[in-house]
Amino acid sequence: MTVANERYDAPSSPDTAAQQKPAARLILALLKRSRGAFALALVACVLNGIASVMLVATLNRALSQPSLADTSLAWRFGLCAVVALATRVLSGVLFARLSQDTMAQLREHVARRVASAELRDVERIGAAPVQSVLTDDATNVSMLFFALPNIVMHGSIVFGCLGYLAWLSWPVCVLALAAIVTGSLGYHTGDKRAIAALEAAGKSQDKLFGYLGALFAGAKELKLHQARARQFVDGQLGTAIGEVRDHRRRAFSAYAVGVGWIIFLFYMFLGAAAFWPTLGVRADASAAAGYVVVFLFMLVPLDGLLNNLPTVNAARVSLDRIEKVMAEFGGMPSAPPPADSASHATFSTLALRGVTHSYFHERDERMFRIGPVDLTFAPGELVFIVGGNGSGKTTLAKVLTGLYEPEGGVIEVDGQPVGTNGRAAYRQRFTAVFNDFHLFDALLGIVDPNDPSRAQADARANALVAKLALDHKVQVVDGAFSTRALSTGQRKRLALVIAYLEDRPFYLFDEWAADQDPAFKAVFYEQLLPELRGRGKSVVVITHDDRYFPLADRVLKLENGSIVSETQGARAALRIAEPAGNETVG
């Protein structure tokens, strides 16, 4: 039940798009491949309600008219009981499967949407809202399918009992309907307050997940400063936890009051039906007994129906939140590029023509602009990019690799411009190890776990691991690293192993050697980079290691987002001086 290529933001027609709310649109898309099981489960719930009402009608007839309580009536009672049992079990099993299948589809949908989003959107939105969606909101949606069978079954029983009451006495049925309608009006007032509280709880939940991330990311800083830890845990984190608790407490308290109000009115209806002489109940003992049986039988389903409505509303709020968060990531591509379509696409020239890009500079609290940049890269070339902190080196690297879209100018491959539709395929030419890299625990995209020749890939990877002096700590087994519990510098070496195995035409390293000891810096600059260049790769290295500048074919110096000099590597060591400063990395 995957949702790999479905577009949840594209209803069938403009008219339906205007009419359907995001929650309804998403749930319909999630149920698209399970509509048969969903329909069968609903039918089973309705049959359960009918069988249950027939049970109480048969029981009432046997009690009110003992002379009719024969074997046939007993068999009918037993048949109704068996049908009620079978339909309840069937609907419960089907809805349980739908619950977990829908949660899995929802998580896949969210993961695919985030994976297909532009890097700028991923960086802007952050992980906290997505974590909240994948845990709390996805759970609320899955709980909807545990509430639905109860709602349908209990609703069927309540409406069936009302119909049976109408058959027994129209005045009593009208009185019961009046009690339910009056109670529902009061329930609706509390329901609006509860939904507002649930929406506020969702926003507080996003903040909570952000602080929970900081609890791990800032563990060192918290342990080194007790006052900071106390203010963070008791202050910011504690406040977010309290906000989620208070909002949800208000929401479910409002629902509890609403349910209590309706049940109270139902009790009043029972009293009126039993003691109001004009209804004629007191004059007929058998009719009174029938009313009491129906009333008591309907009371539990009515209570169950009302108590499951908060679950439906919580799911509706969560579905709206999921759609809003996903909308920030943009739509799913209607036709994703073929996997690794350009990983071996060679080129003669790759050029940036008047490329510009702007971003918010945290230090100066202003928009920082790189460019216009005019650069040309060729295979078999080693280029160093240097410059002070905050000069825009990393941003330029992200534009070059297609992770950021140029705001001005154009990127060309062999004279052909790279448009929006071609940027995903363009990115597949690059292998990059950024300064804030992430090391996955397996050789994803390189080794197919089902490929019988994966042992050869393991051997190649382990040879590289040994070359980088890590074979005593980690091994590649079945396409996965035996451990990632290593220092930052050691994990960067494993990232270099993956980069070598990808064997793409363009390599970019962002301060790779910054966390390495002098011996491995020498290996990187004097052995690995010349080897890549010798294999015809275009190699760009962002670096501050001026002692290795003579090894480069070109050294580009960046200042304030602009390239201020381009020097041949042999002369760069004499001409380029590194500026001092502690600005944030660009």
Outline of this structure?
The protein is of the alpha/beta class and 586 residues long. It has 2 domains: 22-329, ABC transporter type 1, transmembrane domain (ABC transporter transmembrane region fold, Up-down Bundle), CATH 1.20.1560.10; 340-439 and 484-577, P-loop containing nucleotide triphosphate hydrolases (Rossmann fold, 3-Layer(aba) Sandwich), CATH 3.40.50.300.
Written account of the structure:
- α6 (127-168) packs antiparallel against α7.
- The two termini are 43 Å apart.
- Helices cover 60% and strands 12% of the residues.
- The protein is an alpha/beta fold and 586 residues long.
- It folds into two domains: 22-329, ABC transporter transmembrane region fold, CATH 1.20.1560; 340-439 and 484-577, Rossmann fold (3-Layer(aba) Sandwich), CATH 3.40.50.300.
- A hairpin with a 2-residue loop joins β4 and β5.
- The model is unreliable at 1-20 and 576-586 (pLDDT under 50).
- The chain contains 16 helices and twelve strands.
- The strands form three sheets. A six-stranded mixed sheet has the order 6-9-10-3-11-12, with helices on both faces. It has a four-stranded antiparallel sheet with strand order 2-1-4-5, covered by helices on one side. A two-stranded antiparallel sheet has the order 7-8.
- It has helices at residues 14-19, 22-30, 35-64, 71-116, 119-125, 127-168, 170-217, 219-223, 226-275, 285-328, 393-400, 423-427, 454-467, 488-502, 518-534, 569-575, and strands at 350-361, 366-377, 382-387, 408-413, 416-417, 430-433, 476-477, 480-481, 506-510, 538-542, 554-559, 562-568.
